Amino acid sequence: MNANEPGSLSAVMLNCTLSPSPADSSTDVLGRQVLDSLAEHGVSGSQVRVVDRDVRPGVELDMGEGDEWPAIREQIMDSDILILATPTWMGQQSSVAQRVFERLDAELSETDDEGRLLTFGKVAVVVVVGNEDGAHHISAVAYQCLNDVGFTIPAQGVTYWNGEAMHTVDYKELEQVPEGTASATATLAANAAHLARLLRRDGYPAA
User: What range(s) does the NADPH-dependent FMN reductase-like domain occupy (predicted)?
Assistant: First the structure.
């Protein structure tokens, strides 16, 4: 499906790495693999490396002069699928991802004419990488945050990679994608695209 055809879908990936561009990022590698897999289902995609942008702390739509969150939010609102991609540090999502969650809190006050949150027709999925444990905890936190502000999570809506305990190999250094991660990425993409099309065709009822 061509991205410009009626009914086509789009996705935006918020890369919450702590590494500013142009540094290599394992989060970028797995996140782009998700975008590539979504493309196989007719979903066009783009990426925002959030650490490169001046996203101010706060829980408002716009935190004032210089705040770049409103432009990122516009990309989210123009997309059908949000990919929240984060590295693992000390078993937790990155501080950049946490700031994204905090800024998304403002969506709780934004509704359409029928009382529905503006995010109600949008799907969200999660990407987690790290050479330490934490993916299940992080995805649980992300699911709650994203669902709470109106996004819908598809079945098996996370793909992740955890490196071997007490070792220092990063995902970006792997010579090939582990079978488990590749399978999770494929399932995530198929289910996210399927759900996004269902929501576009038959959205949630009025509040």
Answer: 21-154
- 3-class DSSP state of 16: coil
Q: What angle do CA 89, 17, 84 make, to 5 degrees?
A: 95
| Per-residue model confidence (pLDDT) at position 148 | 98
- Candidates 168, 160, 172; CA nearest to 134 is 160
Per-domain boundaries in the chain: 9-201
What global pTM score does this model have?
A: 0.94
Q: Judge whether 125 and 34 are in contact, CB under 8 Å.
A: yes
Are 150 and 122 contacting, i.e. CB atoms less than 8 angstroms apart? yes
| Domain 9-201, CATH among 3.40.50.300, 3.40.50.2300, 3.40.50.360, 1.10.3720.10 | 3.40.50.360
pLDDT digits (tens, 9 = 90+) for 9-47: 999 999 999 999 999 999 999 999 999 999 999 999 999
